[in-house]
Design goal:
Layout (H helix, E strand, L loop, with lengths): L2 H14 L4 H4 L6 E6 L2 E8 L8 E10 L8 H14 L4 E5 L2 E9 L5 H26 L2
Antiparallel strand pairs: 1-2, 2-3, 3-5, 4-5
């Protein structure tokens, strides 16, 4: 599928969420950013050697690993694993010192309804988890 067609599908899904895609466009094409509650949501289409036709992603940074109180690290990582086991079509991840909630998939067959559902679900959990994790485990 052509990249511009995928961009249009993603923007239609973003619009279904009540967000104006033009206002959410990032500095790079194929990137949109906006807030839902206390969470910042990143939506995009990325291409690489493994996915030459692109993959769709939605992500949110929940907190910095450096914010975790030193005495609570083991309990924190245990909690992440427990939460991960209950999530559908998304996962918690660690990257470059950040705790992320992410959902991604090959862009083949993507439609605007799936885009909206993915954003809605991930943004709901991100808005809940960023506060919950910080309140329970931050220094």
């Amino acid at each position: 599928m052509k990249t511009q067609i995928l961009y249009d599908i993603i923007e239609k899904g973003i619009l279904r969420m009540g967000v104006e895609p033009e206002m959410a466009r990032g500095e790079n094409s194929g990137q949109w950013d906006f807030s839902r509650g206390s969470a910042t949501i990143a939506v995009g289409l990325s291409q690489n050697e493994r996915f030459p036709n692109g993959y769709f992603y939605v992500s949110s940074v929940l907190m910095s690993e450096s914010d975790i109180h030193v005495t609570k690290k083991e309990a924190f990582y245990q909690k992440l694993l427990e939460i991960n086991a209950s999530l559908v079509n998304m996962q918690l991840a660690l990257s470059d010192g950040w705790v992320l909630l992410i959902s991604n998939r090959d862009a083949a067959g993507l439609d605007d309804i799936e885009v909206a559902i993915t954003i809605n679900e991930l943004s709901y959990y991100a808005d809940e988890l960023d506060d919950q994790l910080k309140d329970s485990f931050a220094s």
